Amino acid sequence: MEILVCIKQVPGTTAVEVDEETGVLKRDGVEAKMNPFDLFAIEQALLLREKYGGKVDVITMGPGQAEAVLREAVWMGADRGILISDRSFAGSDVAATSYALSQGVRKAGTYDLILCGKQTTDGDTAQVGPEMAEFLGIEHIANVEMVLEAEGNELTVLENQENCQRQLKLFMPCLLTIEKDANTPRLPSYKRKMKTGGLEIERIGLSDFSDKDRRHYGLEGSPTQVERIFPPERNASCQKYEGEPEKLGNLFYQVLLEKKFVSENKV
Questions:
Q1: CA dihedral defined by 217, 218, 219, 220, rounded to 10 degrees?
Q2: What is the CATH number of the domain that holds 8?
């Protein structure tokens, strides 16, 4: 089974500045890590390879520093790392990101199964996987808790709905987004790190795509128009009151009145 896992490097902290003019996160100098949800997708791919044979490739889109998460995935057990990187992709929204990824996947090879984490911790849209599948023209299922069986070109999966679980079948090639806690991701192997230390990460850019029109990527190719984005104001100040319950209740009522959260009850 030929499997491709899409992963992403995300900020390792919530204290990330936002460029208020472009609405893009300022990632320079910010500690980064692999998107936690992607670890479950990698583990699912490795489990399938152990059961059915084949290979596992990992792919990501980002700047050169994103190679770090590809190497981490290789140390976990992946066979090949591919980086989609080009300045033309900067500022991509969900649609432009999904399209660029689909172009990169077409260039990377032919796969029976594409796996993604359920969502990312920086965007939280949970839309990139399904949109990429639509651009690739393949079947897809989101929120998969378990791949139950692979027989021929057919997969049986367990999908998590808000109030129930569904057992579904679909034909490969296809794309699945894997739920959090679907499995227990293994740790990167030190022995494998030493063995694959010189592994070359393959790079794909706009010039490698079948669609080289820059208008389809980055800020120009993003149909989402952000009117304004800004970090929330932080206010750590507080007031502390002590006293008997009746006194505190009246005091709290006066505070609510002052802030106009309630209106005075006149009888």
A1: -30
A2: 3.40.50.620
